[in-house]
Amino acid sequence: MNIQIYIDQGGIIVTVLIAMFGLGFTLILWKLFVILYVRVRREKIYAQYKNNISKDSDIHTLELMVSEIMGSLESGLNTIKTIATISPLLGLLGTVIGIYTAFVGISQDGLGDPSSFADGISMAMITTIAGLIVSIPHYIGYNYLIAMMNKLELLYLQELYSYTKSKDA
Question: Cβ neighbours of residue 71 under 8 Å, at least 6 residues apart?
């Protein structure tokens, strides 16, 4: 089972999907590292914002502070989401091209030579599989990162809000 054979049969579409997988997986790992780093360094980041909080700070001001912290974490997430969305469509494009190629082979050679038909169907199946292999982990990774960021955002908001309440006392 040589992977190069599958890449060759899938053509340019599988090559593009492999490149998208590499880019997306790198982004997922990078975002995971950054989110974990921000979570670990929460106290230092939190301390920077404490100085800007007065006892008169309302929830809107606190939300703006947290949005500022979280804004930098959001970069790259749209790329991951786009890869998760587009890769099955590229797989479907490969399926259509492969089936078209199969029918062109039948129209040129007739049904006497099944290999011309089989090549097109093979391309169709390989590109479909490759599109799903790229899409599924990126979809899961995107949702996991969003959930981590939502928890982190809520944590920051709760800490800043509790700090304003402690200033009131």
Answer: none
Residue owning tokens 């997988």: 21
Nearest-CA neighbor of 28 among 90, 77, 87?
A: 77
Transcribe 8-44 into DSSP letters: HHHHHHHHHHHHHHHHHHHHHHHHHHHHHHHHHTHHH
> By C-alpha distance, which of 32, 15, 13 is closest to 73?
32
First and final C-alpha spacing in the chain? 70
Rounded Cα distance between 53 and 126, Å, is 57
With tokens 């391309």, the residue in question is: 123
pLDDT digits (tens, 9 = 90+) for 9-68: 888 999 999 999 999 999 999 999 999 988 888 777 777 777 767 666 667 777 777 787
